[in-house]
Amino acid sequence: MNVIQTEDGSSTLFNSEIGEHYHSTHGALQESRHVFLNSGLEFYLNKQAQQAISILEVGFGTGLNYLISADYCFHNDITLNYTGIERYPLNKEILIEVDNIKHISPTIGNEFLAHYEAAMQSQITTKAGKLLINVCDVINYKSNNKVDIIYFDAFAAAHQPEMWSQETLTHVCSYLKTGGVFVTYAITGNLKRIMKSMGFSIEKAPGASGKREMLRAIKQ
């Protein structure tokens, strides 16, 4: 696992086993903010203002999407209930090397590093709300709760086609509330067909730097 500096000055990881970066090399932070924070969390809250929000992330990775979301909620007095799914969690030492916490308030960043390993054992209470990281295959994830937003941040279909299958997406989206928002950096004809077959309305939004479009879908 190699740490790579991206064009916006933030860092990401390169997984040499599958030949894939964890984030866009055009800007890890810019991509996460655009695709997930702006097009997901802020979009949802602009539609229906809430003081509590729940997010399910597929592909927790370095925790960057969590960190920027928790930081946003902390500064806007919104209680965040965040659940991540990650089959291969990174060691804390790697997260320290990537240093995502420099992009957010120390209150949220330092707390995350201090309790990262505990969050993989059970749900923890944070300054922003709650965090749980499920170490499992996504298809084996089970919960009694539904969420407002899904961040779908799996590796690309070229490297992990099973993550973008009808079976996986149907399973994941079963945990999304009606009116909930699904966002991902990718947009393909197959993905759009699958989402439409599940009754989602599809929105093609401008992509992050280096990508023309991304996908946002609303559960009807």
Automatic annotation (TrEMBL):
One of its GO terms (biological process) is methylation. The keyword Phosphoprotein does not apply. SUPFAM superfamilies: S-adenosyl-L-methionine-dependent methyltransferases. GO terms for molecular function: oxidoreductase activity, acting on the CH-NH group of donors; tRNA (5-methylaminomethyl-2-thiouridylate)(34)-methyltransferase activity. Residues 109-219 form the MnmC-like methyltransferase domain. Keywords: Methyltransferase, Transferase. It holds the Pfam family Methyltransf_30. This is tRNA U34 5-methylaminomethyl-2-thiouridine-forming methyltransferase MnmC. It comes from Albibacterium bauzanense.
